[in-house]
Specification:
single chain; alpha/beta; 2 domains; 10-stranded mixed β-sheet; 3-stranded antiparallel β-sheet; 13 helices; 18 strands
Length: about 400
């Protein structure tokens, strides 16, 4: 079952996506998501110019071997561009194998460990009252877990406040938006937000919050401690995680569960965090962490240390990536939760899919492979549009983590 053709499709049905399509000599095709927000064309070039020529003639069934051929064999390893490209190839090969054997990918991984996958949605608002209404809306839709974000008084363009009701797309067309940040105002404000939410909704709904890498470790420890009375499901990305040992400081000051990892690319980015029990949820993704093959290894390490999965699932991950995550989630034993940001109607038409949402949970469906296809003719009507994530600055102008 040799690979005889492949191509990269870049389209923008509401936002940019990079999709890899591989075709075998049997006429079976598989899809992989290769989107890297704000750097899409770098991955498209990596695939088209350097990876696809190496795949022609290879046996599509040799998934593990192909993963190492592209990672170990390339010498220059890791990084988001390389790993997104490898992730796309790996996902496409799992899709092909499932279609060839006429079974969904989760069955290839060992079958379902649960009936469905609990997901969380994004509730946000310009005011606390707006956020309260947004959380109520998600609860009415059946969500059992909701991430709550709110604009910070006196801080323009606070992270997490979207332009639509059901999805949040921070990338801006043209040059990056430059936002201003005040840690002091943020730390003073957030506890009051969750105090209000618990008064409104009690403790029957899981509440999550994303710091988005903006605090120092001791600041994160202070925030986590102040949020303990409100029993968050998790506090996400409290500080940049390049320095994994910094999370020891956070652990010393709070019992609020910590989630991290959406920007990680390999198991080496999170090994210390997992092995030293410095986090509670690992948020690595199918696409940016080298595909299902590598994500399973991260989950296996995490399981040994009582760390659960909580894969990133923003709208800059396309339906192909979401489907792959759901197959992984349904199978892996130490699953925790899955982020679910709904795509636009245009995106859903370009990428028809078998996965579904019901009462706060999702299922990947039982279609062979991943259960997602690509309408190439429709995709061609949505050409690529340059767009970038914001750049963040402190009030004195210093560039800060966004």
């Amino acid at each position: 079952m040799r690979i005889v053709d492949g191509k990269v499709i870049v389209c923008s049905p509401g936002r940019n996506f990079v999709t890899l399509k591989l075709v075998t000599e049997d006429g079976v095709h598989g899809l992989g998501d290769a989107t890297l927000n704000g750097r899409e064309l770098a991955v498209a070039s990596y695939l088209s110019d350097h990876v696809l020529p190496l795949l022609i003639g290879r046996d599509a069934r040799r998934i593990e071997d192909t993963w190492h051929y592209l990672y170990t064999g390339a010498y220059w390893r890791r990084g988001p561009v390389t790993m997104a490209a490898i992730g796309a190839v790996d996902t496409a090969l799992w899709d092909i194998l499932g279609k060839t054997l006429d079974t969904p990918v989760y069955q290839l991984l060992g079958g379902a460990s649960r009936e469905s996958v609990m997901v969380y949605g994004h509730a946000n608002g310009e005011t606390v009252d707006d956020t309260v209404k947004a959380v109520a809306h998600y609860i009415d839709m059946g969500y059992r877990a909701v991430r709550a974000q709110c604009a910070i008084p006196g801080v323009l363009h606070a992270y997490g406040v979207g332009r639509g009701q059901l999805y949040y797309e921070p990338a801006e067309k043209g040059r990056p938006l430059e936002s201003v940040w005040s840690t002091e105002r943020y730390l003073d404000f957030v506890p009051s937000l969750f105090e209000r939410l618990r008064k409104e909704f009690g403790f029957d709904v899981h509440l999550l919050h994303d710091v988005h890498h903006r605090l120092t470790p001791i600041e994160a420890g202070r925030l986590g401690k102040s949020l303990e009375p409100y029993r968050l499901f998790w506090l996400e990305d409290p500080t940049p995680a390049e320095l994994q040992s910094a999370f020891r400081i956070i652990r010393q000051h709070t019992t609020t569960p910590i989630a991290v990892g959406e920007v990680f690319n390999t198991i080496f980015d999170c090994a210390q965090l997992i092995e030293e029990h410095l986090i509670d949820y690992i948020r690595t993704t199918v696409i940016h962490a080298g595909g299902i093959t590598h994500l399973r290894k991260i989950a296996a390490l995490a399981e040994l240390h009582h760390v659960r999965t909580g894969a990133h699932g923003a709208t800059d991950l396309g339906p192909v990536s979401l489907a792959a995550a759901l197959h992984f989630d349904l199978n892996v034993h130490n699953f925790g939760i899955q982020e679910y940001m709904r795509h636009t109607e245009e995106t859903d038409r370009v990428f028809p899919h078998a996965y579904s949402f019901q009462r706060g949970a999702m299922h990947p469906g039982d279609a062979p492979g991943l259960g997602v296809d690509l309408d190439e003719a429709l995709a061609a009507k949505y050409p690529y549009e340059p767009a970038y994530l914001p750049v963040n600055r402190l009030q004195d102008g210093t560039v800060h983590s966004w």
